[in-house]
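note to self: dont lose this again. the chain is below, predicted strucutre after it. 391 aa total, dont forget to put it in the shared folder this time
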Amino acid sequence: MIVRQFIHWIRTAPAGERAEATRALARAWLISDLSADDRIAAEGALLMLLDDASPLVRQAMAEAFARSLDAPASIVRALSADQPTVALPVLEHSPLLIDADLVDIVATGGEEVQCAVARRIALPVSVCAAIAEVGCAAAALELIENPHAELAPFSWDRIVERHGHLAAIREAMLVLEDLPAATRAALVAKLSETLAQFVVARNWLSAERADRITIEARDRSTMNIAARSRGDDMQGLVRHLRVTGQLTAGLILRALLSGNLGLFDAALAELADLPLARVSALLHERGGNSVHALLRRAGLPEATFAAFQVALDACHEQGFVDSDDGAARLRRRMVERVLTHCESDRGATEPLMVLLRRFATESAREEARLFCDEIVADDVVDPLYDDLIAA
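---
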């Protein structure tokens, strides 16, 4: 009876009063013990209010039903397709919207709608994939910052591909500790490309020099990423490097000269299409024939075989790095040993010599920088030590 009176009254009531009355009716549906007749009448009234001319009325209904499992499903679906001011609470919170509904909403909705979906709790893989594939940059950022989102590796990669040129996207992704190494490498490549285009556009560097500097910076970043990668993460990184054309002889030689046998072994296993354990066994036999056969199967230039062999011997003699930071830097003694050997090797090609000379310069500068850092650190510690003694 009360619902029937409500239906008669609401036809002439002002919009603000209709909104408050609608909110009360929606709450009554959820928490009141309505009779069967009143529940049917209340649902009819709420369905009628979906066509109300004022968005305030529909917004009040959406706010009341947004988080409820007991809300009428048909009404919730209708509200989710309404204008953004009405739909956003339902899109962000309603447990009644199934994955297929959300995927369709992402595909057809605007920026505000996509962002609301991206903020949902327990966002499944399929919906995350839809946002990664067609969502705007703002929605992708919401997705990255949502700790409840389940992103598959291909979704991370798609976000990088579509929005990796944006600083906000890169910064949000790079702070994630569990970001796949392959995705991290793709982000670095995007950043390198963006910076190269910027300096070339400003005529600060020629395109050729910018490309070379970009590749060197990207390779150094790859070493840092690889130094902290293990197992499947390392294999995923190596596979990404191969697909993107970055798994070159120069990068693999850099890995070996940095003492990063994890990346070196994984790279050769990927290129030679051999099990990682088999590759590691061949590399540690300390025999030139097996190493050369492996390098040949991996498709590396034969002119680099001697450099790889000398570097591998030096790595065995000097021992392996014992820290992630150590595996990210070229080891000066190893570089100089390989360079000295190749300078007397008639089979060494000019491109290899140029690369090794660059490695030698880089490793010398890095060693000097570390030395200076140690001196500064000692100067800070010594006064503190003197003060303690004086006290």
